[in-house]
Amino acid sequence: MSSARLITIANQKGGVGKTTSAVNLAAALAADGHKVLVIDLDPQGNASTAVGAAHASGTDSSYEVLLGDCTANDAIQVSPEDSNLFCIPATIDLAGAEIEMVSLVRREFRLYDALAKGFLDEHGFEYVFIDCPPSLGLLTINAMTCSDEVIIPIQCEYYALEGVGQLLGNISMIREHLNPELHISGILLTMFDARTKLAEQVANEVREQFGAVVLGNVIPRSVRVSEAPGFGKTVVHYDPSSTGAMAYIAAARELHKRGDYPPHPTTGAIGVSPEIYAELEG
Ligand code: ATP
Ligand code: MG
C-alpha cells in the first residue's frame, strides 16, 4: 500500500515492552533522519504519552480514524521532540471501539482503508510502528491487516513464551484469510537483566526456538527506561546516553540495516534470514 515499512508490535501478554519498544525504535529511527509514524491502537494511550501527543478524550485519534469519523490526516500530530516523529494518538474512547466496530463493514480493514488512500506516501513516511493492546482482538487484527511485518517483544522473564504459540496461530490465520503478506520480521528481547541466570536462559531458549529472526541487540532492564514515560518522553529523548536508549538505538539501526525478513514459503509466518532461506532451499 505504500513504500513505508509497516510494523505491528504485538504480544497479547501484558507489560512485555510493546509500547516502550514501539516508541523507542520509532524515536531512534527518526533521530537517524527517517520519517516515522507511530499509530497508537491501545486505549491506554501510553505510546501517545511517550511521544508527547495530546490524547485527551475527544481529540481526533485512532478511534475516530477506525470509525471513519475523521481521516488519518486529521488525527496526525508531530512530536514536540523531533520533527521527523509523528503520531496518531489513542484516547480512552478507543476502549469501546472493538465492540462498536463489530457491526461495521470491513471491520478488519478499517485501519488499512484509512491508510490506503496515499496518506503514507504523501507524507513520505519510511516507517510506521503500530502499538497494539495486550489482546488479539479487532484492534490487533486491524494492525495486522495493514502491516507486512510483526515484531514480537519478549520479556526475559518467567513465562516469557506463554501465549506466543497462540500469537503465532493468529498470525497464521490472518495470513490465510486476511493478509497473505503478514509475517514475523523480528523478535526483540526486552528487560534483559544480565545479573540473573534466568534472563540468559530465556534469551537462549528464544534464540534456539526462533533463530536469526531474533534481533542481535537485546534491551537491558534499565531504570531510565521506566522513568522516561513519567516525563512524557521516550528514553531516546529523555536520556540518550543511557544503556536503555543506546540499546534501542542499536536495535533500530539493526532493523534498518538488515531490512525485512521475508517469510519462507514452507516455514509460514516466521521470517527467516537470507542465509537460513538459502539453507532451507538447499
Ligand atoms: P501493555 O501490555 O500494558 O501494553 P507493554 O507490553 O506495552 O504493556 P510497556 O508498557 O512497554 O509494556 O512496559 C511495561 C512496563 O515496563 C512499563 O512500566 C515500562 O516503563 C517498563 N519497561 C519496559 N521496558 C523496560 C526496560 N528495558 N527497563 C525497565 N523498565 C522497562
Ligand atoms: Mg503497551
Automatic annotation (TrEMBL):
InterPro entries: AAA_dom, DNA_Partitioning_ATPase, P-loop_NTPase. Gene3D superfamilies: P-loop containing nucleotide triphosphate hydrolases. It comes from the Bacteria. SUPFAM superfamilies: P-loop containing nucleoside triphosphate hydrolases. Pfam families: AAA_31 (PF13614). Residues 5-184 form the AAA domain. Belongs to the ParA family. May play a role in septum formation. This is ParA family protein. It comes from Corynebacterium phoceense.
